[in-house]
Specification:
The chain is α+β, with helices and mostly antiparallel strands. It has four helices and six strands, in the order βββββααβαα. A six-stranded mixed β-sheet has the order 3-5-4-2-1-6. The mean pLDDT is about 95.
Length: about 120
C-alpha cells in the first residue's frame, strides 16, 4: 500500500501544484456501509454501500471537504497522454518532500486560498 494515514497527496488534474487539489489521507480500508454520506462524498462509480477498501481523504485547503473512493481507483495509472499533460503517473499521488514544503509555505497557502475563493465565488 502506497498511502499512510496523514500523508499528503495531489489529484492529477491541474497544470501545476497550485491548481491541483491537495488531500490528506484520513482513513484506509473502510467499507462503504460504514460511510456517513452526510459528511463524506463518495466519488467512485459503484454503489457506495457495497464498496470496499475505501480511502477517506480530505482537501487540506477546504474545511469539511471529505471524500472517499476505492483504493484501486485512486492508485490507477494514468494514460500516457494524461501522464504527460499532468506530470503525474497515478490518479492521487503522494507529494514529494519538496512539494510538502511548498504547500506549507505561507505564500503558497495564500495563493491557494485566493484561487479557491475566485473559483467558488462565481
Amino acid at each position: 500500500m502506497i498511502y499512510e494515514v496523514g500523508m499528503l497527496c495531489k489529484h492529477f488534474k491541474g497544470n501545476d501544484l497550485l491548481n491541483k487539489n491537495i488531500y490528506r489521507i484520513e482513513k484506509l480500508g473502510v467499507n462503504g456501509i460504514d460511510i456517513d454520506e452526510t459528511k463524506i462524498t463518495y466519488t467512485g462509480e459503484r454503489e457506495l454501500k457495497s464498496a470496499t477498501n475505501l480511502v477517506v481523504y480530505s482537501n487540506i485547503f477546504q474545511e469539511d471537504k471529505y471524500f472517499c473512493r476505492e483504493y484501486e481507483d485512486i492508485t490507477q495509472e494514468l494514460s500516457d497522454d494524461k501522464k504527460e499533460q499532468f506530470n503525474q503517473t497515478i490518479r492521487v499521488q503522494p507529494l514529494t518532500e519538496e512539494e510538502i514544503m511548498m504547500v506549507q509555505d505561507n505564500t503558497f497557502i495564500e495563493n491557494k486560498k485566493q484561487l479557491i475563493l475566485s473559483k467558488y465565488s462565481k
